[in-house]
Amino acid sequence: MRQRFGVTNDDMTAVLECAALAPSVHNTQPWRFDVAGDTIEVRAERDRQLSYLDPTGRQLHVSCGAAIEFAFLAARSIGRECTVRLLPDGGDPDLLARIQLGRARVATPTERLLAEAIPLRYTDRGPYTDRAVPADLVDDVRARAADLDVWIRTVDDADDRRALVTVLSVAEQSEAADARYGEELARWTGTDGDVGVPADAVAGRWPSDRVSHVPLRDFTGHASQPSVEGRGDASPPSVERDFLLMLGTPDDDPLAWLSAGRALGWALLCAASVGVSAQPLGPATDLPHARATLRHDLGLVGYPQFVVRMGYGTDRPRTRRRHVVPA
Fold first, then answer.
1. Rounded to an integer, what distance in angstroms lies between the CA atom of residue 188 and that of residue 324?
2. I want to staple 81 with a disulfide (CB 3.0 to 4.6 A). Which of 21, 42, 102, 281 is the partner?
3. pLDDT for 81-134, tens place per residue?
4. pTM, two decimal places
């Protein structure tokens, strides 16, 4: 299929390389990019779907949605119109999107800024400073999310934060009690290749005198968390109360999951563009019972799809990506 409007192979390669830098659950990178002329087809790679944590493919769709948003922003940043069609073929559920590059059109300053943040963004599992996340960051994310039919909620009320902490704790204890979870976690963590979470990135770099207010995933699979009660005669550690952001959708189907992933991709790049780091709080939305509890206890209208902690971190990127070879 021929390329139109002067779209070049270099254009397509630049877009694909940016799309491949998107975050994904356990860095599974569950996508494939097929190129035909000026169009990229984003396909689900089901052998990279997590069988225990993601039996419905919800997290696969969220991950691929982020890659779609990264591709969209990359296309716009090189001055191309970009049309995204989600689930364009009802008879082919693994075809998640068609992304078509079009005529020349100057990118907006925001599109350029976010595209420039793509290679800078990474998951920071370490401590964050006490510096406040900019209020206008949330405004920017909320505006884009609304365009995608995704809602945004900050979790700052004390009761809501306590409810979230409980959901996270119970959910991870439940996951850790199942041998299948441990086996799956071991497969995708502590790796040295281009997929999975590297050994030196799974726990962050927390000092002994600081802990997070919200439980963070224990990649050993034991649901272990540092104590906030002190250690022997040592003084209690300081408790970090990070900025918490939740994304959700009115519906709970593959289209909503992809849209949530696009909004998540935009949110993470908005954060990265101003030096703000982020870490998923995965157990809150991993499995259906945790999501249902979160929805009930926080009085949510709609379905929670993702929760992240955000702040100014001090870590560095370490996770690698598969080399993109256009199919």
1. 20
2. 102
3. 999 999 999 999 999 999 999 999 999 999 999 999 999 999 999 899 999 999
4. 0.94
- Annotated domain spans of the chain: 9-123, 146-311
Residues 6+ apart with CB under 8 A from 313: 124, 126, 127, 128, 129, 277
Contact between 63 and 24 under an 8 Å Cβ cutoff? The reply is yes
All residues at 6 or more sequence positions from 307 whose CB lies less than 8 Å from its CB, including other chains: 155, 164, 244, 245, 246, 247, 280, 281, 284, 285
The phi and psi torsions of 248 (rounded to 5 degrees) equal -150, 175
CA distances to 126, 210, 276 from 234, in Å: 22, 12, 31
**Token pair 């420039």 in the structure block, residue:** 116
Whether the domain at 9-123 and the domain at 146-311 fall into the same CATH topology: yes
DSSP-assigned letters across all residues of 57-100 = SHHHHHHHHHHHHHHHHHHHHTTEEEEEEES--TT-TTEEEEEE
Question: Going by CATH, does the domain composed of 9-123 fall within 3.40.109.10?
Answer: yes
Half-sphere exposure of 34 (CA within 13 A, CB side): 12
Query: Which residue is associated with the tokens 């790796």?
Result: 191
| CATH 3.40.109.10 matches 146-311 | yes
For strands 197-198 and 189-191, give the pairing: parallel
Longest CA span, the chain: 72
Please name which of 132, 215, 131 lies closest in space to residue 169, comparing C-alpha atoms.
Answer: 215
How far is Cα 271 from Cα 106, in angstroms, rounded to an integer? Answer: 23
**Could you read off the pLDDT of 210-222 as tens digits, one per residue?**
889 999 998 888 8
Please tell me the number of Cα atoms within 13 Å of 316 on its side-chain side. Answer: 2
Give the DSSP per-residue string, 179-248.
HHHHHHHHHHEEE-SSSSEEGGGSS----TTEEESS----TTSS-----SS-STTSPPPEEE--EEEEEE
Which residue type sits at 36? A
Residues 128 and 121: their CA atoms lie apart, in Å, by 15
* Contact between residue 39 and residue 1 where contact means Cβ atoms under 8 Å apart: yes
